[in-house]
Amino acid sequence: MKRTIKHLFALGISGLIFMQACRKDDSDMVETTITAPVSTAPSNNTSVVLSPSSNAVVTFEWDQSKTGNYTSPFYKVVFAKEDGDFSKPIYAIVSTKLGYDSKVAVSHREMNKMAYAAGIKQLEKGKVKWRIEASNGVVGMSSAVSTMELTRPAGIAENPATLFITGTATEGGTDLNKALPLKRLSDGVFEVYTALSTGNYKLIDNVTNASLTAVIDAGVIKEALEIASPTTTKKVYRINIDFNTASATFTEIQTVGIWVSGFNAIKYTLDYDAAGVWKANNVAIAWKPESWGRDERYKFRVTEKDVAGVVTVKNWGGSVKDNVRPTLTTALTYYLLKPVDNTQYDFAFKFALEAPADIEFRMSALADYTQKITYK
Fold first, then answer.
1. Are residues 72 and 116 in the same domain?
2. How confident is the model at residue 31 (pLDDT cuts 50, 70, 90)?
3. CA dihedral over 268, 273, 276, 282, signed as positive or negative
4. Which domain holds residue 236?
5. How far is residue 89's CA from residue 252's CA, in Å, rounded to a whole number?
6. Are residues 240 and 272 in the same domain?
7. What are the start-end ranges of the E strands in 83-209?
8. Same domain for 179 and 82?
9. Rounded Cα–Cα distance for residues 356 and 370 (Å)
10. Is the pLDDT of residue 7 over 70?
């Protein structure tokens, strides 16, 4: 028995020695070398005039690296400020095919963000440096460093997720807690109905820690601390902003009225209150007598004037061409406002009662555009 145990023990020791030898041999066979990638495009000192609103791209290409164990390297293009450090890059992008391809196309929109991160201001030129970094998961190598000159267009590089208007000319004054939010219509596109007076205003992306401060200067969105209001007397505007095109417009809202279909005329007018809301109290609602009964249909008509002084009329009605009269159980969606045509009867709402009422035309940035009618 003792002999058998000794024999088994010896075999175990021999097995361990053999396994360790195999592991050592295997590790000796693994080559972790990699050659540096060689950039082929774009050339060093290339100049690019950025056009973020277009489909233009800058394509980076390079010769493949070679690895000692013939594994496939993966790549990324890394950017730094002209006087910066690649250990703190301003931008990095992995190549196509999950990093294994030897090229990558970067849109002008992304390049504009990177230029902004490099400190290049709108409508100015500046330089960044870049290189291709290759790795096989164990070791890495980088290409020679290249430089690129970028010319930024007007506008903001990064579309804000939220936007507020504040300043002495605004409804909330300089108190950031009262800054009026803008309605986000889509990525980079905002709208707000608000009053402006004499003074200054600015647009900010955050009321607690703003990283963006912008203004509208002659229809162009620009980075600036503040700018003078477009009016010296109180006026109500619809402000439309598109960061994708760096453009913005002020449209003056001159009047808001209730168009009563049966009379084919505006019968009641509303006055601006605040925060995109117009009101009329104790309106003596009267339906139009007809041979077949009384007509209760109505729309809202808004008179607008653009910066060129051109006056237009916009109609706001319902989503149903031939609406029914609402009741106490009618869903609130019935009252939602939609841009409609100027026909006399189509897409009109119907008054629930022929009685005095308080009426609100609500173009609030915090909710759907709607109306509120409170009967007395």
1. yes
2. low
3. negative
4. 164-245
5. 45
6. no
7. 91-94, 103-107, 125-135, 140-142, 146-151, 164-166, 180-181, 183-186, 189-196, 200-204
8. no
9. 20
10. no
Average pLDDT, the chain: 90
Q: If you average pLDDT over residues 169-190, what whole number do you get?
A: 97
Question: d(Cα 152, Cα 89) in Å, to the nearest integer?
Answer: 19
User: CA torsion, points 21, 24, 30, 36, in degrees to nearest 10?
Assistant: -160
Q: Are 125 and 21 in contact (CB under 8 A)?
A: no
Place of tokens 């450090």: 85
Q: Are 247 and 220 in contact (CB under 8 A)?
A: yes
How confident is the model at residue 29, as a pLDDT? Answer: 52
Residue 216's contacts (CB-CB under 8 Å, 6 or more residues apart) are 203, 222, 227, 239, 241, 248, 250
Residue 46 pLDDT greater than 80, yes or no: yes
State the CB neighbour count (10 A cutoff) for residue 353.
14
Is 182 within a domain? yes
pLDDT above 80: residue 172: yes
